[in-house]
Amino acid sequence: MQQLAEWVLGNGITVLGQRISWAELVGQLCALAVVFLAQRRTLATWPVQVAATVLLFAVYASAHLGGLAVRQVIILLISVYGWWAWQRRSDPVYGVVVRRAGPRERLALLAALVLGTTAFALLLEATGASWAPWPDAWIFVGTAVAFWAQGRGLVEFWLVWLAVDAVGVPLQFASGLHFSAAIYVVFAVLVVHGWWSWNRTARVQRAAERTSVGG
User: For an engineered disulfide with 55, which of 19, 27, 111, 133 has Cβ 3.0 to 4.6 Å away?
Assistant: First the structure.
């Protein structure tokens, strides 16, 4: 196993003068596939996310980005929850049931982002685990909140992802992970489309529920 890890990190391809390890390439392509799968609300979203998590943990750990590496562990745990939650909320006609968050849920998401980022950034500063503690913390906490909201089927999880991408792109470039930064740019475009798609689906499913109750 250790030899395999060393091989996927030590070998890869070169694009425009930038070396991309197999772990980073396959991991980010899996992460990109997750966005497509999430738009379609398919259960395959979660096992592909698990594969991305394992590979990207190795990438970020080797780049000495403590927050981003530990983030993969949190994503793995939330992915297990999301897989279980989507199986419970699957509809034979409309697929996974999605909805807009209520006022209290939106407040809870915002509070988790602000308080979580502040607490984790201070922890990273105190331990010296990251050279960019505040953006590292924002990405870490934002990712956890986004995946939790995704597991709950909340449309707003796409907006949280957009906020994560806004910080993630410059941080990846500054870390020398140019391929990952380019993938984050693609993410942003797909996230906007995903938000529009889930909004439309939420309206359709809500109308169907009202018709069912009224009938």
Answer: 27
Q: Tell me: the pLDDT tens digits for 45-78? A: 999 999 999 898 888 888 776 667 877 888 899 8
Q: What does the mean pLDDT of the chain come to?
A: 84
**115-128 per-residue burial string, b: 16 or more CB within 10 A, e: under 16:** ebbeebbeebeeee
Contact 130, 166 (CB under 8 A): no
Listing DSSP states for 140-208 in one string gives HHHHHHHHHHHHTTBTTHHHHHHHHHHHHHHHHHHTT-HHHHHHHHHHHHHHHHHHHHHHHHHHHHHHH
Q: What confidence category does residue 23 fall into, taking pLDDT thresholds of 50, 70 and 90? A: confident
